[in-house]
Amino acid sequence: MCFAKRVRESDLIDKIDKALGRYAYSAREVGLGIGDDAALFRPRAGHELILTCDWFLEGTHFLRDKHPPDSVGWKCLARALSDVAAMGGVPRCFLLSLAIPDSHIGRWLNHFLTGLRRASRRFGCVLAGGDTTARESILINITVVGEVRTGHAIRRSGAQDGDSICVSGRLGEAALGLRVLEASKHAISSRDLRLRKHLYPEPRLALGRWLAEKRLATSMIDISDGFSTDLRHLCPAPHRGALLAPDCFPAVEVPARLRTRIGEPLDLALHGGDDYELLFTVSRRKFPSLPLTYRGLKISPIGYVTTGPHLVWDSNDAKHQILRPGGWDPFR
Fold first, then answer.
1. In 3-state terms, what secondary structure has residue 155?
2. What is the third-level CATH fold of 9-149?
3. Is 156-322 a domain of CATH 3.10.20.70?
4. Which of 22, 89, 138, 143 has the smallest number of CB atoms closer than 10 Å to its CB?
């Protein structure tokens, strides 16, 4: 793990420690953080640990010449935290593994760490350690440690026939932002509202934790690969399917003049991915207790779990359509 002679790994680690590590020293859960062979973590009594990791790769998940480095720092942590939200947990600390060319250990790294520090503090998840190495392309891996009360974790596998299918927020906004960014021939401000959800996603930690505490959700997943792909994980064929109502589907709004270049709203919402909203099921008995908003976040009932293998659009003209998974698949 060596950098070019003009850059020492110890200097890089010290830079990361100054930006993020000192914040971890006050966290009760982290008994030992950066500076030793491994971190020490103190779980709370009556809780189970949640462990998750996530890649964030240049050329696959972000473009060096298009994405602001602070958004790369924010998003690499936020998207990993979304997995904790999907189980109804609370994030506690994370490990950062970073491969970076020595040419980017100046300004680019400074902005990257600024975004990562903002996300760390915003979501209450401190840096506990990690690894660094040199590489021409930038590779980032985030490992998150979270907690959930024993027996309260929400899994993907609990959906039953007749459960209501619900989703938070509006889908397709992140895909819209990516299309706008890719189509632009000039630099676009990261403050452009169309880019907000793509560059700075918000993991739905509060909603996930509330659903777990109230025992409302029978199953849950975060929408990272696209609704059409992630719904299949909650309703696995051949024993589970879904009947969906398109009129209730919370799709992004795209001006008609941009649709030829950017895409149709429903297509972005169904297959675009990267929204990090929560997709979950609720039993018939508990559905009346589910609000239509939670802390200002819209919750949309969009259909029902069925027996049988298909995900079906229940269109008004009685021509039911089968929804095929069309979201992200790295091996496709």
1. coil
2. 60s Ribosomal Protein L30; Chain: A; (3.30.1330)
3. no
4. 22
Is the separation of the CB atoms in 170 and 251 below 8 Å? yes
Give me the helices (H) in the chain, please: 9-16, 22-24, 69-85, 107-122, 173-183, 196-199, 205-213, 227-234, 259-262, 265-271
Neighbouring residues of 321: CB distance < 8 A, sequence distance ≥ 6:
312, 313, 315
Q: Which residues pair with 306 in a beta bridge?
A: 241
Q: Where does residue 231 rank: exposed (0-12), middle (13-18), buried (19+ CB within 10 A)?
A: buried
Token look-up 């207790």 returns 289
Q: What's the Cα-to-Cα distance from 219 to each of 39, 130, 211, 317, rounded to whole Å?
A: 32, 32, 10, 31
Q: Identify the CA nearest to 57 among candidates 100, 25, 90, 26.
A: 100
219: helix, coil or strand?
strand
pLDDT tens for 193-238 read 889 999 999 999 999 999 999 999 999 999 999 999 999 999 998 9
Q: How far apart are CA 330 and CA 332, in angstroms?
A: 6
Q: Which residue has the tokens 């909650």?
A: 234
Contacts of 111 (CB under 8 A, 6+ apart): 68, 69, 70, 73
Token pair of 232 as six digits: 């299949």
Determine the straight-line distance between the first and last CA of the chain, rounded to whole angstroms.
Answer: 32
Tokens 């149709």 belong to: 264
pTM greater than the 0.85 cutoff: yes
Please check whether residue 160 is in contact with residue 112, taking contact to mean a CB–CB distance below 8 angstroms: no
CATH 3.90.650.10 boundaries in the chain: 156-322
CB atoms within 10 A of CB 150: 10
| Per-residue model confidence as pLDDT tens digits over 251-300 | 999 988 888 888 899 999 999 999 999 999 999 999 999 999 999 999 99
Residues of the chain with CATH 3.30.1330.10: 9-149
Do residues 202 and 118 touch, judged by C-beta distance below 8 A?
Answer: no
The token duo for 285 is: 């008995």
